[in-house]
Structure formats: structure tokens, C-alpha cells
Design goal:
Low-confidence stretches: 25-35
Structural class: alpha/beta
Distance between the termini: 59 Å
CATH class of the largest domain: Alpha Beta
CATH topology of the largest domain: Rossmann fold
Helix content: 25-40%
Strand order of the largest sheet: 12-25-26-27-23-24-13
CATH superfamily of the largest domain: HUPs
Strand content: 25-35%
Length: 530
RNA sequence: GCUCCGGUAGUAUAGUCCGGUCAAGUAUAACGGCCUCUCGAGCCGUGGACCCGGGUUCGAAUCCCGGCCGGAGCACCA
């Protein structure tokens, strides 16, 4: 056996290929296989009765593409294993990252839009007594202490692996101090509860982390519970306790939380809990989009953005407005999967997912961006055209226009795109799509003149005429397209668009997909993509 | 500075745990062609990648060592 392997390895690739070709030609045939991508299996599922995942946002901003990975992966895994998906509002910072009432609901709405149904919901600001309970337990067991050092002093010591004097207090003293925190005798910044870890832990970030602190809620009332509490848990305390209590089996979150796992594991050990399985995925960026909450909040506040759904933002609200389907986002996130490397997507990626879904669903219409009046003379007769609403689906129906030549010159007037006309030279022939062929006579300013040639499609095709779209002057309405950079483009759409309901997504042929935003007095659309 | 994580075409992903079928698959983007009364969709085709250097091995994207590059944490934020 080994001998054969050695022998074969000494042959060149060409020689090996030749032998295979002669003896087993079928082995060289390549098979094309299309695989439906799905999520890799979750670890240790069999250990648990039911998979439980959670999405836990701070309601201090609307949701955006940056959260999509956490939401969709958590939800998708819960569904895949017929488990539970929990929404938990982590609103435990009334001061620095203050929650805002309106966002609780906006986040719920965003999740509904995304198609991620929530099985259960919790709000941490309802649960302070629970955290107090565990804080006291940890203090009683000597696993935590009340630290009254200045943060800078503590840091200095901890970097040198040294304990501060508070660490040596007795359990009774700690409980006294804890009560002083709770009853308001100690003010903001005067004390924190720290979980004891290992002062020699190689990672300084893991040493004796803070679990609860005091916030002056008279000055900074919480939007839901006001000034009822002044002692607030920090992330690792609240999330750690909740993950256990809520039976979370698989934590799926960004890798910036990697050291938080290390920290929380100390607490889990003290309380004799098992730490859930974890997936720490990498950061998701999209080129050219701001995915930073603070920038979004700032920009909306100053009016640089028109709102949470400004088309320049990658918030779900904005993506919705721009005609991005939630299914496209879902599919994209699932394809990306849960790996730890950072990803930088380009819009093209999202668009191609979206286009695939949109194409069969969207009806087609004509829209002229830079209108120029084209006067066609010598139109011999009345033309009635039926334009397909969808090129591949006749069952979608038609829109019908009747072109009636007028005057003794038998003229018919159309709006066409200036760019199209500019690309044609005088005397050249072109075709008004689905209508007839014309010859360009002359162009001046905002009008052009042409004369009827014939209505032979074959001739247009064979002679490679340019095919351009058009809007009959008597059947035109004005239309505004809001572009991705928030600029407005005004153009002319065909009158059949009058009946479109807002929120439908259509394709303006040779222009791109747009979503109808408003169609009362004026047609206003948002541009999606080509 | 300390600690952790990562690096496969322009972008994203499969393969890495457990070395051979990877001469590196797929999607998207680019280019060319076909088809189509859209510049969309569809079909066919082309080009394009294992961060670098050593080592182990008959054989390395995969294992080991060293380097380089990128990201994250080191908050009384989440």
C-alpha cells in the first residue's frame, strides 16, 4: 500500500491525469451541485430540553443592519431547533446610554417587519429586585465586595495585580455597605459592587469586575421606572443573571463580548450555574453606511438626517422605505453565517439578494428621468398599445394607451429621456418600445422632432435600432424619486402609475426598482437599486 | 502596554477540527456571448484567491514555529 502511494506521488500531475483518463475516465467528470445554504449545527443541542436564544438590545436607538446578525441568527437557530426566541430589553443604564421610551416599540416593530417573531419578552428595568437578590447572595458568600475606590485608583492597582483595601472587608461590613448603597446613604460614584475574580488573571480586563453601581436617578430618571431605584446592575450582572434565569441555552452575540464571557463565568461558578453555549460572531459592516448608533442619533438630532428612516442610513426603517425586503436581509445573514471573522459587505451584495426576490414580483412601468419632448410627425393611424406589466408573466396584465395622431402633420407627442436622444445622431432610426420606429429629424433644447418610419419590430431588431421607453404626453404624471443619497430626482411617469398603492415595489424599466412611498396628490417613490 | 480573536478572488462564503478526492467549490461583482421589445431577469463562457517565511510529511489552505496585517476588550456602557 505505502509503496503504491510513494510510486504514484513520484509521477507528475500530467502523468497521473493520463493514467486516470485511460482507466477511469468517469472519475474526471465534474458534477455541478447546487446546495442550499443553511446554518451550521449548534453545539451540544442534545444537552438541553429546548434551545432558547435571545436578542437583547438597549432601547436607546432604532435597530439597523449591524444588529441583523444577532437578531436573525438567534431567531433562525431557535426556529431550526423548534426552540424559543426571547426579546430582552437591556435598559439598565439611565445615564450614559439612556433608553428612550419610543424605541421599545420601534424595536418590536422592526422585529415584526424582519419576520422574527418573539416568543417571550422581558425588560430588565422591571427586574431590579432580582439582581439585588443575587448581589446580596454573592456578597453573603464572600464572592463580591463593595468597593469605594475611585475608578482610576482601582485601575492602577488592578493593573499591578494588587487588591484594593475594600476587597478585605468582612462579609458583615460588605452587607452594611450594600445597605448604604440601597438606602441612598451613598451617592452616585461613591461605591460599586465588584465580583471577585483572580487578580492574577493574565487579562486585566477580567479582574474584579463591577457588577452594580449607583446612578443619581433624581437627576437622570429612568424612562420607565423613573427615580424608583438608584442602584443599577451593569451588563455582566444583569445579562449573566438573566441568561441563566431565562434558560438561555445558546448565546449568540458579537465577539466584543468575548471577555464578558470570561468575567461572567466567575459569577456562574459562585452560583453553581452552567454557562450556556456561546457563538461570538464578527462585526458586520457595510461599505459607506453608518452603523454606529451614536452617529445615527447625533445626525437625526441635528437634522442632518431627515429621520430614523433617512435613506442614507442602514436602519431597518430606512431599508424598508427603500424597498429592501426583510427576506433579502434574512437570506444574506444566513449565508454569511456565524463565523468570527469581521465582514464588510457592499450594498451590491444586499441588492442582488433583493433583486432576485423582487424581479418576479414587481410590475414594470415607464419613467423618464430627464424628460425631453419628442414630437413625432406623419403617424399614419391610431395606435393602441398593450404594454405587459411583467415581461415573463402575461397573467400580470397590461396597461393600455391609445396614440392618436393630431393635426394635418399627424403629430403625436412623447416624453423621452434626454440621454437617449443625445446618444442618437440626426437621421438615425430608433424604436419607441412596443410602439413604432421613428427617424430623428432634429434636436433643440427641450424638444426633438422625429418622423414615423414603420411599426416593424423585426426591422428594429435586425437593424439593431436603439429601443427607448416613452410616455405619451396625454398620459403622463409627474413623479419624484428619492435617491439613496437623499437627493430628489423629478421626472415623468406614465399615468398607469396613478393607481399604485403605497408600499408596492415596481420596476421603472431601464431605470431601476423603486418603492411607492406616497401616491395621493403626487407620486413619490424611493429608489432601491438597478 | 496587557489580553483575546481573526486573515481563502473586488465582496461574501465552503473547505481548516480529523492532511490526499482542493489542479480550491459557490454566490455576487467584472468582462464576453446568447436570449429578451428594459440598462432587469434567464442561459453559456472568461479572468480572478489559500497573508508571508520556515518546518513536519511521499503529500499542507488544513499540523507546528516565527513574522506581518486587521479587529475587539482592558468603562461606575451595552
Amino acid at each position: 500500500m505505502n509503496q503504491i502511494v510513494v510510486e504514484v506521488n513520484h509521477l507528475s500531475i500530467e502523468e497521473q491525469k493520463q493514467i486516470i483518463k485511460n482507466r477511469w475516465p468517469e472519475a474526471l467528470k465534474k458534477e455541478k451541485h447546487k446546495e442550499q445554504k443553511s446554518l451550521p449545527p449548534l453545539a451540544n443541542v442534545e444537552k438541553y430540553r429546548q434551545v432558547v436564544t435571545r436578542f437583547s438590545p438597549n432601547p436607546d436607538c432604532v435597530l439597523h443592519l449591524g444588529s441583523a446578525r444577532a437578531i436573525i441568527l438567534s431567531h433562525e437557530y431557535a426556529r431550526k431547533y423548534k426552540g424559543k426566541f426571547i426579546l430582552r430589553f437591556e435598559d439598565t443604564d439611565p445615564k450614559v446610554k439612556k433608553p428612550i421610551l419610543e424605541f421599545y416599540n420601534r424595536i418590536r416593530e422592526d422585529l415584526v417587519w424582519l419576520g422574527c417573531t418573539v416568543d417571550d419578552e422581558f425588560i430588565q428595568s422591571d427586574r431590579l429586585p432580582i439582581y439585588y437578590d443575587y448581589a446580596k447572595k454573592l456578597l453573603c458568600k464572600g464572592n463580591a465586595y463593595v468597593c469605594k475606590c475611585l475608578p482610576e485608583d482601582f485601575r492602577k492597582r488592578v493593573i499591578e495585580n494588587k487588591a484594593c483595601s475594600c476587597r478585605a472587608f468582612s462579609i458583615e461590613e460588605n452587607l452594611d455597605h450594600w445597605n448604604l448603597m440601597l438606602n441612598g446613604a451613598l451617592g452616585e460614584g461613591e461605591a460599586v459592587v465588584r465580583i471577585k475574580t483572580d487578580l492574577n488573571h493574565p487579562n486585566p480586563a477580567a479582574r474584579d469586575w463591577p457588577a452594580l453601581r449607583i446612578v443619581d436617578t433624581d437627576k437622570f430618571p429612568h424612562p420607565r421606572v423613573g427615580s424608583k431605584y438608584s442602584v443599577w446592575p451593569l451588563y455582566n450582572m444583569a445579562a449573566g443573571v438573566d441568561d441563566h434565569l431565562m434558560g438561555i441555552t445558546h448565546i449568540i452575540r458579537g465577539k466584543e463580548h468575548l471577555t464578558n464571557m470570561v468575567r461572567q463565568k466567575y459569577m456562574y461558578n459562585y452560583l453553581c450555574w452552567d454557562y450556556p453555549e456561546t457563538i461570538h460572531y464578527g462585526r458586520l459592516k457595510i461599505t459607506g453606511a453608518f452603523l454606529s448608533k451614536s452617529k445615527i442619533i447625533q445626525g437625526v438630532k441635528t437634522g442632518d438626517y431627515v429621520g430614523w428612516d433617512d435613506p442614507r442610513l442602514a436602519t431597518f426603517a430606512a431599508l424598508n422605505k427603500r424597498g429592501i425586503l426583510p427576506e433579502s436581509i434574512q437570506k444574506m445573514i444566513i449565508d454569511i453565517g456565524p463565523k468570527t471573522a469581521d465582514v464588510t459587505l457592499s450594498w451590491e451584495n444586499l441588492f442582488s439578494y433583493n433583486r432576485k426576490l423582487l424581479d418576479p414580483l414587481s410590475n414594470r412601468y415607464f419613467f423618464v428621468l430627464n424628460p425631453i419632448m419628442l414630437k413625432v410627425k406623419s403617424v399614419p393611424k391610431l395606435f393602441e398599445v398593450n404594454l405587459k406589466l411583467h415581461p415573463q408573466k402575461t397573467e400580470a396584465g397590461f396597461r393600455t394607451y391609445t396614440i392618436i395622431p393630431e393635426g394635418n402633420q399627424r403629430k403625436a407627442n412623447f416624453w423621452v429621456d434626454k440621454k437617449d436622444i443625445k446618444s442618437l445622431s440626426k437621421g438615425s432610426m430608433f424604436r419607441l418600445m412596443e410602439l413604432f420606429n421613428v427617424k430623428l429629424d432634429f434636436v433643440s433644447g427641450n424638444t426633438a422632432e422625429a418622423s414615423f418610419v414603420n411599426d416593424s419590430y423585426k426591422e428594429a431588431r435586425n437593424s439593431k435600432f436603439k429601443f427607448i421607453h416613452w410616455i405619451y404626453q396625454d398620459e403622463s404624471i409627474s413623479c419624484i424619486v428619492i435617491m439613496p443619497d437623499a437627493t430628489l430626482s423629478e421626472g415623468i411617469a406614465e399615468s398607469a402609475c396613478k393607481n399604485l398603492k403605497s408600499d408596492t415595489i415596481i420596476q421603472f424599466e431601464r431605470f431601476g426598482f423603486v418603492r411607492i412611498h406616497q401616491n395621493d396628490e403626487k407620486l413619490i417613490t424611493y429608489y432601491s437599486h438597478k
